């Protein structure tokens, strides 16, 4: 098989239970080489468990598949050598310095040009002059950047990133995504889980997961189109009251307040138009149809997939 | 300040309830609460005996006579001595004492009964391994009393003239290895093993659980390092720590307690290396068994207790019942105590030490299997 055409990830029917909790059910995913694949879902939906199964940290109860052409059940050693995994929680050694952490990683992966690779990583981070500082002394954003640099040090062909930008400021997040796109242009594949909608829009492909089930996957526009939703936006003040009034009216599936605008979404376009224009007129506000955004779809899918209680129980 | 700011029964009760709920879910602590007292009681009550009897004794008889038989029977009857073997010559007797296979050797010289009848007050020789003064003290006292009663029994009729006054023969005691019976000579080398066990098992016991507590284990597992690499890699630094500890204790033994050092220093460090490796293997397996750092510490204590009580460090090994000696034989500390005392006090070399070296080696191999078996390769 050719590395350029072998899917980076190709898994089918993965299942995982902890006790009587079915955390991931029948997960099937295909990630193509050079693709940034966004993994979206609420907390506790099974994103982390799925990623851990892909890199051999958890054994699936059933299902099969490959990562970079290696069998996820039998060849986890080869997967570990070629995959970079960034954990959700900072998991490098806080009592080692930045350089010592990177050097350890380089040694574990038996990199031939170890010192040069560490130096490059330090310069890329902009931390060359703080290399001797302990990793534990870094702020959250810097820890995140160190972790990313460390998990890319051995030049993996696939990156698995578990909420890499949680708690990182917007500038650092933008830099981070630019870096990801640059790496993908060089042929690296990325699976990244996130809560941020702006990040979801930067992915080539998306998958929504809730209660351990994959609800929809495809490009951002495919995902939006697949749900056949219409959305209206109402501008003005005291939108929360208006939202309350619209809830439960025919055609209205969901209302979301974004600052000074209210998004009203539903899949019966005609009934929605009637309800929204009527309510807006009554409140003396202006309503206009808008494109359904990825965020509207995400919230719609989350609500549809179950109540909050069900989500907590899963 | 109002009274209920200072102490409220209901708030206090909420804390008590929470502690009970948490305790109920902490199975290991719960098990410790129940098991440790039972174990302590069983060991102190049944296993430990500071007046050990049935000490292993060999006889080297070069003059078979009525007196000899009566004397040997008297030794048996005192219940301090178990006559387990008849030795062919002086060399085998010495070797058995050095190895610790025998604690006493009774030698009856060739012309004993002839000289006795002539009234020359001959002597029986009782050689004792006096490394542990506490273990042999009472037995020796009993042996020294024996001539009196033997004389009263055997010297009747025409020989009765020999029975009056002083006993017609004596027991000459030859205390080997620690002739003055100085307790420090016995205790100080023993403490070395105890200190090594305590510090090394605890430190490595925390090694893997620490990674888990800090969340770095997930990262380590995602990297291409094998379990054996992680575990043996974590052991190496502690080998040096162990060797430093050994040197400190050795210096203290010589300078502060003036414990003699009869054997070879190189042999000593080789034995110590074996023992250190054994302890590190235990620590690492406890670490891979334990779910968290507290459990690792509890398991360390659990391992430590029989080591202190059954290894012959605190209480004479020969005084323990068979089941307790079996447990003791399985512990590296028991063998290390014998090795250290053998090298320091008896000047033993490898031929004498071998019997206590291979059990430690076997122990390391078995324990490492346990560690590998329980090392979690995944987060399942």
Summarize this, please?
Chain A folds into 2 domains: 9-223, P-loop containing nucleotide triphosphate hydrolases (Rossmann fold, 3-Layer(aba) Sandwich); 228-291, Alpha-Beta Plaits, CATH 3.30.70.100.
Describe how the helices and strands are arranged.
The complex is a heterodimer of chains A (314) and B (380).
Chain A: E1 9-18, E2 21-31, E3 36-40, H1 47-54, E4 62-67, E5 70-71, H2 76-82, E6 83-86, H3 98-108, H4 114-125, H5 140-152, E7 158-162, H6 170-185, E8 189-194, H7 197-200, E9 205-210, E10 213-218, H8 220-226, E11 230-235, H9 239-246, E12 254-258, E13 261-266, H10 269-283, E14 286-290, H11 294-305, H12 308-313
Helix pairs in contact in A: 3-4, 3-5, 4-5
Chain B: H1 3-6, H2 9-25, H3 27-47, E1 55-61, H4 66-77, E2 81-86, H5 90-99, E3 104-108, H6 112-117, E4 123-129, H7 133-154, H8 160-163, E5 170-176, H9 183-214, H10 216-222, H11 227-255, H12 265-289, H13 293-310, H14 322-330, H15 332-346, H16 350-374
Parallel strand pairs in B: 1-2, 1-3, 4-5
Antiparallel strand pairs in B: 3-4
Helix pairs in contact in B: 3-13, 4-7, 9-11, 9-12, 9-13, 9-15, 11-12, 12-13, 12-15, 12-16, 15-16
């Amino acid at each position: 098989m050719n590395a350029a055409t072998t899917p980076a990830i190709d898994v089918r029917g993965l299942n995982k239970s902890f006790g009587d909790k079915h955390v991931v059910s029948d997960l099937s995913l295909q990630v193509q080489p050079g693709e940034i694949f966004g993994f979206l879902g609420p907390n506790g939906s099974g994103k982390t468990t799925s990623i851990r199964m892909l890199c051999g940290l958890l054994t699936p109860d059933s299902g099969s598949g490959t990562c970079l052409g290696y069998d996820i059940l039998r060849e986890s050693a080869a997967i570990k050598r070629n995959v970079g995994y960034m954990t959700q929680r900072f998991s490098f050694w806080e009592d080692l310095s930045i350089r010592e952490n990177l050097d350890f990683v380089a040694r574990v992966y038996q990199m031939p040009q170890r010192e040069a690779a560490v130096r490059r990583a330090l310069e890329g981070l902009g931390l060359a002059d703080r290399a001797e500082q302990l990793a534990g002394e870094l702020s959250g954003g810097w820890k995140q950047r160190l972790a990313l640099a460390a998990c890319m040090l051995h030049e993996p062909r696939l990156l698995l990133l578990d909420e890499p930008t949680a708690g990182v400021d917007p500038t650092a997040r933008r830099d981070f995504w630019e870096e990801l796109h640059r790496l993908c242009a060089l042929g690296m594949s990325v699976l990244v889980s996130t809560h941020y909608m702006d990040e979801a829009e930067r992915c080539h492909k998306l998958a929504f997961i809730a209660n351990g089930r994959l609800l929809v996957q495809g490009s951002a526009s495919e995902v939006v189109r697949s749900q056949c939703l219409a959305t209206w936006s109402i501008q003005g003040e005291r939108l929360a009251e208006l939202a309350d009034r619209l809830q439960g009216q025919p055609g209205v599936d969901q209302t979301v307040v974004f600052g000074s605008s209210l998004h009203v979404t539903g899949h019966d376009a005609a009934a929605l138009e009637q309800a929204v224009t009527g309510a807006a007129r009554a409140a003396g506000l202006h309503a206009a149809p808008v494109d359904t955004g990825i965020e509207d779809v995400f919230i719609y899918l989350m609500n549809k997939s179950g109540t909050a209680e069900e989500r907590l129980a899963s | 300040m109002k009274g209920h700011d200072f102490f409220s029964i209901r708030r206090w009760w909420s804390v008590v309830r929470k502690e009970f709920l948490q305790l109920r879910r902490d199975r290991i602590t719960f098990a410790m609460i129940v098991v440790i007292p039972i174990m302590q009681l069983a060991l102190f009550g049944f296993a430990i005996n500071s007046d050990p009897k049935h000490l292993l004794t060999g006889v080297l008889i070069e003059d078979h006579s009525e007196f000899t038989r009566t004397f040997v029977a008297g030794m048996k009857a005192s219940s301090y001595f178990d006559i387990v073997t008849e030795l062919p010559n002086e060399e085998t007797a010495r070797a058995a004492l050095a190895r610790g296979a025998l604690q006493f050797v009774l030698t009856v010289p060739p012309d004993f009964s002839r000289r006795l009848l002539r009234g020359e007050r001959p002597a029986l020789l009782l050689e004792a391994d006096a490394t542990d003064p506490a273990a042999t003290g009472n037995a020796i006292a009993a042996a020294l009393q024996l001539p009196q009663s033997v004389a009263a029994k055997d010297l009747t009729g025409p020989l009765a003239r020999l029975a009056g006054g002083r006993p017609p023969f004596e027991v000459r005691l030859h205390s080997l290895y620690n002739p003055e019976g100085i307790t420090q000579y016995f205790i100080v080398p023993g403490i070395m093993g105890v200190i090594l066990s305590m510090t090394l098992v605890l430190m490595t016991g925390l090694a893997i659980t620490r990674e888990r507590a800090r969340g770095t284990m997930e990262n380590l597992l995602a990297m291409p390092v094998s379990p054996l690499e992680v575990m043996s890699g974590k052991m190496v630094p502690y080998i040096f720590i162990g060797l430093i500890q050994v040197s400190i204790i050795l210096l203290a033994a010589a300078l502060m307690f003036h414990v003699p050092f009869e054997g070879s220093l190189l042999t000593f460090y080789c034995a110590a290396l074996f023992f250190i490796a054994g302890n590190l293997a235990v620590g690492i397996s406890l670490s891979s068994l334990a779910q968290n750092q507290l459990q690792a510490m509890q398991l360390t204590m659990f391992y430590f207790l029989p080591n202190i009580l059954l290894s012959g460090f605190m209480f004479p090994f020969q005084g323990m019942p068979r089941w307790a000696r079996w447990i003791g034989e399985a512990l590296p500390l028991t063998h290390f105590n014998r090795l250290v005392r053998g090298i320091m006090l008896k000047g033993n070399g490898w031929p004498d030490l071998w019997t206590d070296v291979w059990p430690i080696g076997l122990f390391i191999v078995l324990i490492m299997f346990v560690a590998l078996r329980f090392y979690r390769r995944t987060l399942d």
